[in-house]
Amino acid sequence: MPGLVACLLLSGALGGTAGQASATGRSADGPARDYAPVFQPGPRLSVPAAALAAAVTCTPNVARARAEVALFVPATALDPAQYSWNWFAALDKIHYPYCSVTLPGHGLGDIQVSAEYVVHAIRYVHRISGRRIAVIGHSQGGLEARFALRFWPDTRRMVADNVALATPNHGSLVSAANCSGGACPAAFWQMTPDATFIGALNSYQETFRGISYTNVYTTLDQYVTPNQDSTGSTSLHTGPGSITNVSVQSLCADDTSEHIAVGTSDAVAYALTMDALTHHGAARPGRIPPAVCAQTHMPGVDPGRYDQHLAELNATLAANWGAAPLATAEPAAKRYLYARR
Asked: Is 55 helix (H, G, I), strand (E, B) or coil?
């Protein structure tokens, strides 16, 4: 990977240790207040309806779809274009229905606000498709999806699969390091291991009944740490949902994909995701054919243009991160994160 990516990509959305929230859901930092019960109704969305609607784009075959529609959520400092030369190209080739949602400020601002866009997108895609959907998020993109499911309970009946690709579900030591100087983009503060956001996200239970969770990670992740096994940041464990925690190296020992590749080009991550979308329940590693290990890239990636696409992604990251407003502390927790009195 180019050196720029090694320094920039999603450094606010990565790494960490598991178990930030207590079993009671009580906040690990700040006032000793209880987080909202898992069935407390979600608040009305504060983002204008026009902005929410404009952020969602779908292929024509999503309407009354015959397959489980995939809703893609981009990573920190990126937009849905990160999927255009890989996932979208692959799904177009097989006529698979999908949508994407653009996050405000390239996902570098308050994740609580970004999550409202995902809440709207879930509701919209479920409505027009007429069926339960799959939400696929790379890195921070996986956090918005889980946050939506945690604090807007009505969305749970609309989602069949939640696929997280190298997502820092339990926070980021790298994010904490980036904010150690006292100022960093707001989203970075929210992805530090002891952030109120992370505590709220994982309070009481991490999964919900009826939803299948496929959590794909790489043991070579330079940003989401630790992720050497299923006790790492990406993996989920508590709650009644169907859960598969799997590293790409557990299927293909010689897989050299790191954080970026898991969300944009890794053949194993693609195979696991499609297995989840096309079967009942979470992905089953045993269904992935060994031949996948011989594939250099996932379907949709043009090997002749791979370096070009990667360089363009790097440039986008640099520009978006460089222009992001800086914050000196984690954004204030929204009132709905806590139990109503």
From this structure: coil
CA atoms within 13 A on the CB side of 316: 19
In angstroms, the Cα distances linking 256 to 41, 126, 166, 229 are 43, 36, 14, 16
Strands 159-165 and 70-73, sheet pairing = unpaired
- Six-digit token pair at 216? 């794909």
Strand partners, 214: 163, 244
In tens, the pLDDT along 102-129 reads: 999 999 999 999 999 999 999 999 999 9
Nearest to 71 by CA among 132, 30, 10: 132
**Cα separation, 164 vs 293, whole angstroms:** 20
Residue that is written with structure tokens 């479920």 in the block: 126
Percentage above 70 pLDDT, the chain: 90
Question: Please, what's the b/e burial string for 314-329 (b: 16 or more CB within 10 A of its CB; e: otherwise)?
Answer: bebbbebbeebeebee
Is the peptide bond prior to 226 cis by the omega test (within 30 degrees of 0)? yes
Residue 247's alpha-carbon distances to 12, 152, 215, in angstroms, are: 21, 29, 8
Task: Answer yes or no: are the C-beta atoms of 200 and 21 closer than 8 Å.
Answer: yes
pLDDT tens figures, 4-45: 333 333 333 333 334 433 334 544 333 446 999 999 999 999
Q: State which H helix or E strand residue 134 sits in.
A: strand 133-138
**143 Cβ partners below 8 Å, 6+ apart?**
13, 111, 137, 167, 168, 169, 191, 201
Residue 80 tokens, joined = 């849905």
**pTM for this entry:** 0.92
Task: Say which CATH architecture domain 3-337 belongs to.
Answer: 3-Layer(aba) Sandwich (3.40)
206 phi, psi to nearest 5 deg: -95, -20
Nearest residue to 112 (alpha-carbon basis) of 139, 54, 158, 151:
151
